[in-house]
Amino acid sequence: MLAQQEEVDLARCRRLIERQIDFGSPEGWTTGDFDRLSADILSRTGVCLSVTTLKRVWGKVKYDSSPTLTTLNALVQFIGYANWYDFQQPTSGENTGSRSLVTPAPLGSARRMRQFVPMPYLVFTGIVVTLVGVLFVFLNTRQPVSLSPRDFSFSSQPVTRGIPNTIVFTYDATASPTDSVFIQQSWDPKRRQLVSRNNHQHTSVYYDPGFFRAKLVIGQQIVREHHLLIPSEGWHVSVFRDPVPVSFPASQLVSNGILHLPVKAIKEHNIPMQPEAPIVRYRNIRAMPGLRTDNFVLETRLKSDFAQGSSVCQQALIMIHGKEDMFFIPLSAKGCVSTLNLYAGGNEVKGTQTDLSAFGTTMQEWVDVRCEVADHQVTIWINGREAYRAKRQGVPTDIVGITFQFEGTGSVDYCRFAQSNGKIIFADNFD
């Protein structure tokens, strides 16, 4: 356990972080807020603190041990201190709690002291300070050395099929001028691991299927990257947990032509439904030759199966995975559409700034969704009515799968991908 003064210091550290990130009162922080904080800390300090670790620091998760020094150092470095020891030192600009305050000398004494400072000493001190300042500006304005990708190599190979899967990364970073060599598993900077520039292999476990862009990073420069597709081998059903999701066999969850994870099955894995409902995901990730983000039709039917407590909004999300792009089609109860965010064809629409009431519906009943991209237009229909239309932006890319995400849990009746000419590329009726 932390000593009393260290508890005071940690509380002060939390307040300073809360003030800086401005997420509102920490009592209302969600897992998403802690996830954003984790990403911000990694971006600024290079240290990855998991969501679980941050929740322990903020008292959201009961934990009897003290935070490690690595955790404490990362937290205070995020707000501008060198390390935890530096943060603990009393300063004139902060309330240091029970620490003793140094009483300044009377003004008259200070004047008498200045009368005895030799002029040559003052001149010499001024010159030194100026030179140090110039050197500081020079060191902090130098352009970083641009590294050539030809001097590095980077590849990967899975050890098996399905999920989970260990990926063996083979790399050559011996030309790196720094020890700051990282392998980043995906677009997410939280999935970045420090590796030795003198070694040549690193392994990472992927617990979710998906399409990733692995990167070899030297300092802050990406020198090599490549695509990495980890297929789901059918439907992959899981409840989100950090760092390892809880998986369920999809074959046991299909009944009467419906894919559905029952609340009972979730509770049997000791996952509480309250006060914060779990996030349930049904994923199907695979190569879909001939299906691209500028020429496809998605037709599906889904509904929410949980509306208790904090899940009154019954939010659901359809994610269409592209190699270089994503579609996010949100749904919710009618009264919650302000919380929705739509991303389709390179267009981002926020529910707090745009009327997305067409995406609000009776979620406990079946909802028919159709998304079509053709002739540079994106059109989405909800229950047969046009809900959104816009011009497609960006460069088209291959589609590699779909995810259904539910707050609590939900059901999918069918899922079908086709080209705009009607040619079926993928279909599952759960027969």
Give the strand tally: 23
Largest β sheet strand count, sense and barrel closure? 8 strands, antiparallel
Query: Rg, please?
Result: 27 Å
Q: How many DSSP helices?
A: 8
How far is the N terminus from the C terminus? Answer: 55 Å
3D structure, described in words:
With 431 residues, the chain is α+β, with helices and mostly antiparallel strands. It has four domains: 4-88, no CATH class; 107-141; 149-230, Immunoglobulin-like, CATH 2.60.40; 236-428, Sandwich (Jelly Rolls), CATH 2.60.120.200. The protein has eight helices and 23 strands. The radius of gyration is 27 Å and the shape is globular.
Short précis:
Helix content is 22%, strand content 32%.
Key terms for this structure?
431 residues, Immunoglobulin-like, six-stranded antiparallel sheet, 8 helices, 22% helix
Topology:
Elements lengths: L3 H18 L9 H15 L5 H7 L11 H10 L5 H5 L18 H9 L3 H23 L11 E6 L6 E8 L8 E4 L7 E4 L5 E6 L3 E9 L2 E10 L5 E4 L6 E3 L5 E2 L2 E3 L2 H6 L10 E7 L10 E9 L11 E7 L3 E6 L9 E4 L2 E4 L16 E8 L2 E6 L2 E7 L7 E9 L2 E9 L5 E5 L3
Antiparallel strand pairs: 1-2, 2-5, 3-4, 3-6, 6-7, 8-9, 8-12, 10-11, 11-22, 12-21, 13-18, 13-22, 14-15, 14-21, 16-17, 18-19, 19-20, 22-23
